[in-house]
Specification:
The chain is an alpha/beta fold and about 400 residues long. The chain has helices at about 10-25, 35-45, 55-65, 75-85, 100-110, 120-135, 145-155, 180-185, 190, 200-210, 210-225, 260-270, 285, 300-310, 315-330, 340-350, 360-385, and strands at about 1-5, 25-30, 50-55, 70-75, 90-95, 115, 140-145, 165-170, 230-235, 240-245, 250-255.
Amino acid sequence: MGISILGSTGSIGKQALEVCESLGLNIISLIAGSNASLLEEQVRKYRPLVAALYDEEAASGLRSSVADLPCRVLGGMNGIIEAVTLRETDTVLTSVVGIAGLVPTIAAIEAGKNIALSNKETLVTAGSIVMEKARENGVEILPVDSEHSAIFQCLAGNRREDAKKIILTASGGPFRGFTPQQMRKVTPEQALRHPNWSMGDKITIDSASLMNKGLEVIEAMWLFGMKPDDIEVVIHKESIIHSMVEFVDGSVMAQLGAPDMRIPIQLALTWPERAANSFRRISLTEIGSLTFEKPDMEAFPCLGLAYRAAGTGGTLPAAMNAANEVAVASFLKREIGFCQIPEIIGQVMEEHRVNTRPSLDDIIDTDLTSREMAADIIRRYASKVQDP
Ligand code: MG
């Protein structure tokens, strides 16, 4: 099987390469944003036919540095689109962060490639369009996100209409149990220290604010055809149950495993088969007990914002996602506090005029205008802080 990895230099991309190597899969193309040096290492090790970088300058640097290899190097969005639609590719694993994954994912679907989906923003911003295109092109979308992989496994062998409710588990992140007052003082360093999962910076901050879980609610809605009211978030600090499905007869199915992203990555690439591996196993007697709590919606307002966006639909999730991307980047640069992330998102959602049946262009436009709106709000905050 031929694999293309969109986002190969990120946390999931690196783990996906490890999995592909152990499965003996053929790497057709590797695609990244601007990290030419790591991509060069990967090209030397995995020998893809094509490598692509979004940053054109970085791409021309890579072109000269791998001139001794037969690998073709492409640049820019057109280069990325070419790299995910190559004839030799069967499955595209999309692990790029943010809305940047949307356009190439749609191009891959239109070219009939199966999608191992790790980029949740694709479904959050354009779920209706992406799912419809997948149906039209007979393309399978296999979830890589651990929760959605769990739900997918719980649903396997059951009729979709017999699923009544999805129970999406969340670790609660580093600030589980914090009061809204305590949340006000948290730093990027604290927010980046996730108790269970090792992930990229953006998703780790989203996990700390519970926006990650909010994005996952919307992702689950589209992947499994559920309403937001039928998706319940439960805090499960051990991260052993990766999610559950409750059926109409009262049975609840759960999927358990070590918190190791290589497991859902591997499953998305081997499904409907499973492959043996040497990843860590869980010992239930060592773990002893599993706990469950309700999420604190007051201390974590991002989750409520995401439910609101999910319920309204149209362009609102794209506006929310754009504001979140800008606010998180700004928090990491210490321009705003942690509690300003939901404030900014809330204001952008308030000001956004929802288009209920958006085209792809409308969604991209919403993304751009909402980013500007969020940046404006951040500038206003900054000038207020400087005023004596
Ligand atoms: Mg997840």
